[in-house]
Design a protein that fits this description.
Blueprint lengths: L8 H11 L4 H42 L19 E16 L5 E2 L6 E12 L4 E5 L2 E6 L9 E2 L2 E10 L9 E10 L20 E14 L2 E14 L3 E4 L10 E6 L3 E11 L4 E12 L3 E6 L3 E6 L3 E15 L2 E14 L1 E14 L1
Antiparallel strand pairs: 1-2, 1-3, 1-19, 3-4, 3-5, 4-7, 5-6, 7-8, 8-9, 9-10, 10-13, 11-12, 12-15, 13-14, 14-17, 15-16, 17-18, 18-19
Length: 355
C-alpha cells in the first residue's frame, strides 16, 4: 500500500536543515539548550509566583479584593486616586426616646422631637492624596405639638482631607489622614416662626480631625478597622433675635457663643463574603457648654451657659456591595449612655457610588 507522506513541522524543519546544509547537531544542541533554559526560567518564575501566591493569597489578595461601602458613623479618609468622584446619599430618621439628665438617668416626654434627615456626602480627589468633601443636608422635624413649616437645609460642611501615609495591606500598615475645613452657616437659626424650623447654628465653625484605617485577615476573611477623632470650634459669637436654635423665645435680643464639640470612635467591617459585610461603630460624642446672654424686650436680662454633654453611640449595620464601585448599607445608630443630651435611635441607609 502506498503511504502518503505528510509534512509536519518537524519534517519541514529537517528538510530545511538538509537543503541548507546547516549542521543539524549544532542546531539540535542550540534548540535543546534554549528550550531547557526557557523552561527552567519559566519554571523558576512560576515557582516564585506560586510561592508568593501561596504565601499571600490568604492575606493580601483577600484584603485587596474585599469590597466595602463604609460603616454608618465612621468618616472615610482621602481618596487614593486623583479624579475619582464618590457620592453617598444617606436617609435617616431620628426617633427620640427621651433625654439624658445630668445624672445620666433618662427622662421621657410626651412631646419628644423626632426628625427625618437626608444628606449627600460628596468627595472628589484633587490629587492622589488630597480630597475635598462637602455634605449638603435637608431636614424635617415634628413633635406632639407641631412640625417644621417645611423641609429646611442645614449648615454646609466643607473640608479638605490629606492622606500622609498610604494604607499598605501587604505589610499591614494603616493609612493616616488629617481633616481641615469649615461649617458654613446656611441653615435657619433665629427669627423663626416656630422652633422646629431651626436647623443651623448661625456661626462659622472650624472643622479638624484625624483618621486612620487598616485591613487584616482573620479566619481567611478580611476585616477593616477605622479610628478617628474630630473637633468642631465655632468662631466668635453671633447676634440672635427671637425664637432661635438656642432655646430663646419671642422678644429676645442678644448674643451666643458656641463651645468646642466633637466625637471620637472606632469601627470594623468584617467580610462574610466579597460582597456581604458586617459593620459596627462605637462613637463617643462630647460638647462644651454654649454661652447665651441678652434680654427680653429690653427688660429681663438673661445670662446662661448650657451644661457640657456627652453620649456613647453604637451603630450595627450590614453592607452589600454589588461591585467595587457600588455598595449599599443599612442599620441603626443608638445611644447607650449619656448626660445632658438626647436619647435616641436612628435607623438609616445609604448607597455609595464611585465614578
Amino acid at each position: 500500500m502506498h503511504r502518503r507522506f505528510i509534512q509536519t513541522p518537524v519534517s519541514q524543519f529537517l528538510l530545511f536543515c538538509n537543503n541548507t546544509k546547516i549542521n543539524f547537531s549544532l542546531i539540535c544542541i542550540s534548540v535543546i539548550f534554549t528550550s531547557h533554559y526557557t523552561y527552567a526560567s519559566n519554571a523558576s518564575k512560576s515557582d516564585i509566583n506560586n510561592s508568593s501566591i501561596n504565601n499571600i493569597s490568604d492575606s493580601v489578595n483577600v484584603l485587596d479584593e474585599q469590597r466595602y461601602t463604609g460603616s454608618l458613623l465612621s468618616p472615610s479618609g482621602a481618596i487614593t486616586k486623583a479624579g475619582i468622584l464618590a457620592l453617598e446619599p444617606y436617609l435617616q430618621s431620628t426617633i427620640s426616646r427621651g433625654a439624658y439628665q445630668s445624672d445620666g438617668s433618662v427622662k421621657n416626654s410626651k412631646h419628644r422631637t423626632d426628625s427625618t434627615d437626608s444628606f449627600l456626602l460628596i468627595k472628589y480627589a484633587i490629587t492622589d492624596n488630597l480630597t475635598i468633601q462637602a455634605t449638603p443636608q435637608v431636614n424635617y422635624a415634628w413633635n406632639g405639638k407641631t412640625t417644621s413649616s417645611s423641609v429646611h437645609i442645614s449648615d454646609l460642611p466643607v473640608e479638605f482631607q490629606y492622606r500622609w501615609i498610604d494604607q499598605d495591606n501587604a505589610h499591614y500598615r494603616p493609612s493616616f489622614t488629617t481633616f481641615l475645613g469649615m461649617n458654613f452657616p446656611t441653615g435657619n437659626f433665629d427669627q423663626l416662626n416656630r422652633s422646629l424650623d431651626a436647623f443651623g447654628s448661625g456661626q462659622y465653625t472650624l472643622r479638624f480631625g484625624l483618621h486612620s484605617q487598616a485591613a487584616y485577615e482573620i479566619f481567611h476573611r478580611a476585616i477593616r478597622f477605622r479610628w478617628w477623632g474630630v473637633g468642631r470650634k465655632p468662631i466668635g459669637h453671633r447676634n440672635i433675635k427671637g425664637i432661635s436654635n438656642y432655646g430663646t423665645d419671642q422678644g429676645f435680643a442678644g448674643t451666643v457663643r458656641g463651645g468646642l464639640f466633637g466625637n471620637a470612635g472606632f469601627s470594623f467591617e468584617f467580610g462574610i463574603t466579597k460582597a456581604w459585610v458586617l459593620a459596627f461603630d462605637f462613637q463617643y460624642d462630647w460638647a462644651q457648654g454654649t454661652h447665651i446672654k441678652g434680654n427680653y424686650n429690653h427688660q429681663r436680662y438673661l445670662r446662661h451657659i448650657t451644661g457640657a454633654s456627652h453620649d456613647f453611640q453604637i451603630a450595627p449595620g450590614i453592607e452589600y456591595n454589588f461591585t467595587p464601585a457600588i455598595g449599599l448599607i443599612a442599620g441603626a445608630a443608638l445611644t447607650v449612655d449619656g448626660h445632658n443630651t438626647n436619647d435616641f435611635i436612628q435607623p438609616q441607609c445609604a448607597v455609595n457610588i464611585v465614578f
